[in-house]
Amino acid sequence: MTEEEVRVLALALPGVTEADHHGRPSFRLGTTVLATLWAPGILNVMVGESEARAAEGGAVSLLWWGKRLSGVQVDLAAADEAAVADLLEEAWTRRAPARLRRDRP
Q1: Number of domains the chain contains
Q2: Pairing mode of beta strands 24-29, 32-39
Q3: What is the reported pTM?
Q4: pLDDT in tens, 6-24
Q5: What CA–CA distance (Å, rounded) separates 105 from 93?
Q6: Which of 42, 47, 54, 90 is 20 to 30 A from 26, alpha carbon to alpha carbon?
Q7: 71 within 8 A of 47, measured Cβ to Cβ
Q8: Residues 72, 58: contact at Cβ < 8 Å?
């Protein structure tokens, strides 16, 4: 996948915007960061621990922030579009208010 393909997927989610995060593009719902293009070809996605552990393997590795598991890191060169879309959707679902989730098909 390319960073532009990730951008299209992320910005298609209701209420998601792109903003700077310490000099890196991030995708946010309000002020909450859902995902960050951390380095060229690397996407960090903030999902829950059980979702992160379930997704681990292949292009997806666990993302640790200190001693805390904070999501997953995706190698976009090896990633499958459906898997990235699912991870972004999961990050969005965790943070979206009920009114947005209700309107989502």
Answers
A1: 1
A2: antiparallel
A3: 0.93
A4: 999 999 999 999 999 999 9
A5: 12
A6: 54
A7: yes
A8: no
What CATH code is carried by the domain that includes residue 24? 3.90.1150
DSSP 104: -
Q: What does residue 13 show for φ and ψ, rounded to 5 degrees? A: -75, 135
Residue range 36-91, pLDDT digits in tens:
999 999 999 999 999 999 999 999 999 999 999 999 999 999 999 999 999 999 99
Nearest-10 crossing angle of helices 3-11, 81-95: 40
Q: Which residue has the tokens 């990235």?
A: 84
- Structure confidence at residue 101 (pLDDT): 86
87 is written with which tokens? Answer: 């991870």
CA atoms of 77 and 47, how far apart (whole Å): 20
List all residues 6 or more positions away from 38 whose beta carbon is below 8 Å from its beta carbon: 24, 44, 73
Helices (H) and strands (E) in the chain, counts: 4, 6
